[in-house]
Task: structure prediction
Amino acid sequence: MSCASATLVVWTSAWLHGAAAADDVLDALGFWAGLHEVVADDDGTATALDLPGPDEAPVGPALLLASLRRASATTARLVIPVPGDVRGLGANGPLGKSALRAGEAAVLPEVGVGLVPKLVADGVLRWTVFDLPTAPAGEHVPIGEAEHGLSSAMREAATALVTLDVARHRPNVRAEIAALSAEHSAVEWPAGMPSRSLRVLQRAAEVAAILTVAASDAPGGAVSATATRARDEALRPLSEAVRRARLAAVDEAVRVLSDQGAGRH
Result:
């Protein structure tokens, strides 16, 4: 429902500004995997951050945090790339390609790096640290605009889904949606997480659950190519609204948590 990069971005930003402890960051990452490991994609990035290179044994995320502190990192941003839109990553470089495959990335512009997670074994999530090319800034979505867009897309999609008869042969569809969206509530956030960000993330999780169920629906076991295209067209605006809502909610959380940390100094 959420993603590991969102957890890393929010908690690391809180930690960098004194609004969370390093152990809190590590504990929060535990939701996504029992073991996290970190390695640099190239020798230059490895040397700059004193991290293992691509041919060396990875280290734990605690050493990543120490490296970011030494490099004077101040904040992080979530990027959720989609085909045709990899803003903030560098279109054709290793970071952009890897993030597009993963569907997510965390970037630290001041340090000039981006991190992409990948499950490399059962319970093992590897974060690869890439050089962040000079590129236009990532997309900034005002949270009010994103929240409004999510509500509008939801209404439009609801009409389309009724028309398409999505999930008509799945009597437990409501329970499926509830179970999927409930997974999101287990994600831990810092104590100072703004309530609006939490509300938007929860709403996005609920809508994403509907998307997941609708996309897997196959009445009668077979869906014509025409019906599939119609369904995908109906769901695409909703998927984009979820993406923008998550970006906006995380951006707002980073802003508020950073301000809270600054107020402590």
Strands lie at 35-40, 77-79, 105-108, 113-121, 124-131.
